[in-house]
UniProtKB/TrEMBL annotation:
<dbReference type="Pfam" id="PF01547">
    <property type="entry name" value="SBP_bac_1"/>
</dbReference>
<dbReference type="InterPro" id="IPR006059">
    <property type="entry name" value="SBP"/>
</dbReference>
<protein>
    <submittedName>
        <fullName>Sugar ABC transporter substrate-binding protein</fullName>
    </submittedName>
</protein>
<dbReference type="InterPro" id="IPR050490">
    <property type="entry name" value="Bact_solute-bd_prot1"/>
</dbReference>
Amino acid sequence: MSLKPKFNDYFQNLITSFESQNQGIKVNWVDIPWDGMENKILTAVSAKTPPDVVNLNPGFASQLAGRNAWLDLDAKIPADVRSSYLPNIWKASTLNGKSFGIPWYLTTRLTIYNTDLLKQAEIAKVPSTYTELAQVAKQIKDKTGKYAFFVTFVPQDSGEVLESFVQMGVNLLDASNKAAFNTEQGKAAFRYWVDLYKNGLLPKEALTKGHRHGINLYQSGETAMLTSGPEFLKTIAQNAPKIAQASSIAPQLTGETGKKNVAVMNVVIPRDTKKPDAAVKFALYLTNDQNQLAFAKAANVLPSTVKALADSYFKELPANAETYDKARTVSATQLQQAEVLTPTLKNFNVLQKAIYDNLQAAMLDEKTVDQAIADAEKEWNSQQS
């Protein structure tokens, strides 16, 4: 998804190499923009005309795994091969104990911050927790007129706010997948975001625009911080060199738990593929140690195999390291403690929508926080009956 034209050379070389080692197998790479991906895949799977190998993420892939759309990989991939991937990351592509995907590349969020804006706001220490973020958000707004940061509450977009709930100590669901978030901790998390919005410390577009708007705001100097993966540092350097020059990085924001999130991209194989063996072979080739390390270097992401992640590239910095290089080592260090914070569910999108819709209602004074969280609980539980 969204890999052309930037990585054309990488994939053309990889495909040529694979085809030369596997006579008779031809690979046709089709790149789909992120925005149209879900509809295209749903249509292809429903029509039983899917691609043989698909690059997705566990969140969306699990929705279709719940409909039995993907090949059961436990029967196709030996245990010793599965164990070459990071255990917690492999687990992210399982549902009800069955593996539906192979991990590919990973990112852990960092705090990218504008040193000039923080200096103007007289902030000496970059916030490391959401509590600290709320404190500096007011100071930044008062001193500079800018926002501290942007986060989206659009239900179909990023799960960052749900992840923040878990980082703040909220259990989203119980063992039966019923809502477990209507607690004092859950109300505190709801209130945290509602208060930031009502106090004018979040951009109004947080309710209507997706996470990529946050990158645009940061590049234009309208926000002091960006919570994002290190892969966006090059984008910022190309689009806003002055902002890039003033940018530095800090570890991912977290809550009282200290938990940090990792985002996983995976590859899945549709159950209706006509060439399951060739598809598995290519998926494993794409995600092997050597190719993951090469792609991680090209894209400034992290690999999901144990051996590739152990490479010195993720531990050692060159002399006079650029922000881009520092981000890589901070990101890799975080990965040791990082986990996928939100549950793998076939209808996770319904949970996110219930919480985000009700957060928005509370932000717009249509509901109290208590009513909003109770309604979100009721909406989710009604789907589980």
